[in-house]
Amino acid sequence: MDKFIVTGGNRLTGDVYISGAKNAADAIIPATILSDGVCRIENIPNISDVAIFARILKEMGAKVRMVNKSTMEIDPRPIASMVAPYEPVRQMRASSYLLGALLGRFSRAVVAMPGGCDFCVRPIDQHLKGFSALGATYSLEGGMVDVSAKQLKGNNIYLDMVTVGATINIMLAAVKTPGLTVIENAAKEPHVVDLANFLNTMGADVRGAGTDVIKIHGVDHLEGATYSIIPDQIEAGTYMVAAAATKGDVVVHNVIPKHLESITAKLEEMGVTVEEYDESVRVIGCDHLNKCNIKTMPHPGFPTDMQSQFAVLLSIADGTSIINESVFDSRYRYVEELRRLGAKISVDGRIAVVEGVKELVGAPVKAVDLRAGAAMIIAGLVARGVTQIDEVEHIERGYEAVVEKFRSLGADIRVASVPEKVPAKAL
Ligand code: EPZ
Asked: Does the C-beta of 145 come closer than 6 Å to ligand 1?
């Protein structure tokens, strides 16, 4: 089990290069199941979510190989089963996309209930509502979701709330479903648009992605395609916050500045300077961070996946700030860890009140989920002394070469490998 050891006090300076978007890869890799040819996906991030998906597709019979460190080639044609393997599937939330992809190809899918970041209950009722609207029936037993249809048929679906997962899953089920499917109240995240662009590159007919109404005309056949994934706006935002927290001066390369607008706006509100270029942003920290209030919203609002990272910044700002987590029922499991470093945060349901403190002080903490783990790194960078972060496998699910990238900016961070605890009975 690895740990990260972070010693605070260094200003981050220099250049960091952003990888492909985890949440786009998590949608596009299962989407290749729908193809009747070989797909080549470029700018794939080297993260454990991608490795798990590769293992799932291989175990289902697909041919999967890395052409180079960021290009994956997938030939889904040998897949003959609509059952996804239980163990790897339950490790991540995105495996729920296998339901839509397998249903779209085989008119049946049997997939374990999804796992992933467990910061709160994460139902899939809207995914199932969409599949039912297309004519499928489903059962939930033995930890498996079994969805099937005699004949899928396009239909109108009005989502009860904006949900990225349901929007993506219904798109996957609908692209080869005869007729017109209309998804209303659809999610508009950049990775929803990226998936639609990939599907259309394969020959699908998906229109309106990026707005709240997506129209899909089913087609009989999808070709193999070559496609390059968009940069990860949350990885980029994480390094932007780290630069601001350490009063640094960092250029974040390989970004789409438009995808970062809500993050940039909040940093500028706090007094940070952000210079935008075509494919990069420069973040210059300031001596005194202004307090500010944050409400997480579906895109283009402030992203919930940046909430924990900003909580660190607000913890060392002047004054008291309010965070309103309006996307998930609760996403504050990291607060207990941040308090160990001296943060003054009180939580009541979806609201967190953050009282700025003069300094944080290093202590042993753990990564309770992917983005919370990234927030612990940022906290360690600004804390006085040494911060040890446990359970870093959560961080490695979504951040490629995170230690190397932070070290390249001057962070004092290293990996300590700790032998697996041998259970007493085994001694
Ligand atoms: C995706 O999760 C992302 N994961 C999350 O990123 C991200 O936080 C989230 O979208 C919001 O942007 C992936 O893309 C793999 P939702 P998802 O469906 O699809 C409720 C990260 O750190 N809901 O948009 O699970 C749900 O409980 C991860 O990269 C239902 O009630 O999120 C939540 O309150 C963490 N029923 C809200 O909708 C449903 O059927 C939004 O969830 C589906 C969702």
From this structure: no
